[in-house]
UniProtKB/TrEMBL annotation:
GO molecular-function terms, A-Z: DNA binding; DNA-binding transcription factor activity
Protein known as: MerR family copper efflux transcriptional regulator
Any Pfam family matching the protein: MerR_1
Domain annotation HTH merR-type: ranges: 7-76
CDD domains: HTH_HMRTR
Xref: PROSITE patterns: HTH_MERR_1 (PS00552), HTH_MERR_2 (PS50937)
Keywords: DNA-binding, Transcription, Transcription regulation
Length: 139
């Protein structure tokens, strides 16, 4: 049983983890964070486990995982038989998606750099290669 000395308000947990109060409420609605107990006054009352779970969610988001993927990771974290292999598979999938995005961004960067190099930076707008490329209806 949680006593008043080791329970946290939503403001305190938000400050401790470094997230907004609305973010915590959102995670509750999305099922990423269990609904906390309520005090007689109606205020939410969290235990220290909520801090660890919120930090997990925040770190997973920083690594690019979606909320659905984080939900899966949380479920796998308690699966003693298949959890670690499932987590590894999802992390590999996330890494593959990041690598694909990097390749795409490098392609876009190259195209933009070429347009910038071709643009003299002065003259008539209709002669600007950047504006022509953006306005080209052949796409």
């Amino acid at each position: 049983m949680t006593t008043a000395s080791n329970s946290l308000t939503i403001g305190r947990i938000a400050s401790t983890v470094g997230v907004a109060i609305d973010t915590i409420r959102y995670y509750e609605r999305e099922g990423l964070l269990p609904e906390p107990r309520r005090r007689a006054s109606g205020y939410r009352e969290y235990d220290i486990g909520a801090v660890a779970r919120l930090r997990f969610i925040r770190r997973a988001k920083d690594l690019g995982f979606t909320l659905d993927e984080i939900r899966e990771l949380l479920a796998l974290s308690s699966d003693r038989a298949e959890g670690v292999s499932g987590v590894r598979e999802r992390a590999q999938s996330r890494l593959d998606a990041i690598d694909a995005r990097i390749v795409e961004l490098q392609r876009v960067r190259g195209g933009l750099a070429d347009l910038i190099d071709a643009c003299p930076g002065h003259g008539a707008p209709e002669e600007c290669p950047i504006l022509r490329a953006l306005s080209d209806v052949r796409a």
